[in-house]
Amino acid sequence: MTMTDTSSADQTWSVDVAGLKIDLPIVPITPDFAISLMMVIDLGVRFGEHVGRQLAKKLAHLEPDVVVGAATLGIPVAIEVSRALRLDDYVILQKSPKIHLGDALVQTITSITSKGDQKLLLDRRAIPLLQGKRVVVVDDVVASGSSLKGSIDLVRKAGGEVVGIAVILTEARDWQEKLGSDASLIHSLAHIPQFSHDNGRWHPMEETFL
Fold it and tell me: What are phi and psi of 2, to 5 degrees?
C-alpha cells in the first residue's frame, strides 16, 4: 500500500484488492483527520465482479443460504457475492423509510461518512428468507463497525444464523471493539489506514494499521 506524492488536496492511497490495484482519494473528515474513500459504485463492473468472486471464495466453505447487505454501497457487494456463490436470493437492508417499510424491523446505526444517526430497516416480508437460515452479511468497508453490527443484529432478530461477515476493505481498528466476538467472523480482501495532517501532507496513522 502506498500514497501518491502530490499536493494534500490530491493525495491518494493505493491498495491491492486481491490482485487488483485501486487508488483511493484521501478525503478530509476534519482539518486534521482523513480517510481514503472507496465508492464501489464508481469502480465499474469488472471491479464488482472481481470482489464478489474473491469474497465468495472466502465464504463458500461456510455454506451460506443467503447473503445480506445494507443500502446503498452494500447492494452491489451483496449481488456480486450472491452471484459468485450461485445463490438466487439476497436481502437488502434499507436506509430510506419507504412506504412499504412502515412496520419494518429497525436498528439505529452511525457511519464515519454520514452525518448523524441512520436507521437500517428490514422488510418483515424478507424474514422468511432469513429465519433458520445460514446468513453471510456483506458490505463495502467496515470502519466504525456500527453499520455491520446493525445488520448482524437485524439478521438475528429475524431468526437468521450469522455464519460469516465479508467486506472488501477493513479500515483502521474501531470495528474490532464495536463488533466484539463477531469480529472473528470477518473476511476481507485488504485493509486501509486513516490519516492525520502534518506539514501540509496527509500521513497514515500507524495505530490504524492491522
Answer: -135, 165
DSSP state of 20: E
The model carries a pTM of: 0.93
Distance from C-alpha of 104 to C-alpha of 97, rounded to nearest angstrom:
9
Angle at Cα 165 formed by Cα 164 and Cα 171, nearest 5°? 150
Question: Are the C-beta atoms of 197 and 32 separated by less than 8 Å?
Answer: yes
Contact 136, 164 (CB under 8 A): yes
Q: What cell was used for 169?
A: 476493505
* d(C-alpha 49, C-alpha 96), whole Å: 26
Rg (CA), the chain: 17
Q: What residue type is 146 in one-letter code?
A: S
Q: Which helix (H) or strand (E) holds 149?
A: helix 146-157
Cβ neighbours around 151 below 10 Å, total: 26
**Short-list 195, 140, 141, CA closest to 4:** 195
Q: All 3 cell numbers of residue 90?
A: 439476497
- Say if residues 104 and 98 touch (Cβ distance below 8 Å): no
Q: What is the pLDDT of residues 27-38, one digit of tens each?
A: 999 999 999 999
CA pseudo-torsion sign 6, 9, 10, 11: positive
Give me the half-sphere count of Cα atoms (radius 13 Å) on the Cβ side of residue 187: 21
Please identify every stretch of the chain with a pLDDT value under 50, giving residue numbers as ranges.
Answer: 5
